[in-house]
From TrEMBL:
Key words of the record: RNA-binding
SMART domains with a match to the protein in the record: CRS1_YhbY
Cross-referenced NCBIfam families: RNA_bind_YhbY (TIGR00253)
Domain of life: Bacteria
PANTHER family: RNA-BINDING PROTEIN YHBY
Name recorded for this polypeptide: RNA-binding protein
Organism of origin: Virgibacillus pantothenticus
GO MF assignments: RNA binding
Gene3D superfamilies in the cross-refs: YhbY-like (3.30.110.60)
PROSITE patterns tied to this protein: CRM (PS51295)
């Protein structure tokens, strides 16, 4: 569980990031969870964009992604979700 200070730190780092995944009409599936989990292992912090044609609510999508990948939801802003998961091999973000 992230503290408020840690979330604030991660939000500041995520401000410059571009979304590298998009959730569309079909929503979240197993393949997407695997790919996002692999990307989180490499990057630790990433943004996921929710397209306008997505049928599910953005909070539900964020919960599904966090549950499927084992990550923490840092922020939901607009149609973007920021996820963080500490990497085992490629650790480069040091939380305060």
């Amino acid at each position: 569980m992230l503290t408020g200070k840690q979330k604030r730190f991660l939000r500041a780092k995520a401000n410059q990031l571009k979304p590298i995944f998009q959730v569309g009409k079909i929503g979240v599936n197993e393949n997407m969870n695997e790919q996002i989990a692999d990307a989180l292992e490499k990057r630790e912090l990433l943004k996921v964009s929710i397209l306008q044609n997505c049928l599910e609510d953005k909070t539900v999508v964020a919960e599904q992604l966090a549950e499927g990948t084992g990550a923490e939801v840092v922020q939901i802003i607009g149609n973007n979700i920021v996820l963080y998961k500490e990497s085992k091999d490629n650790k480069h973000i040091v939380l305060p």
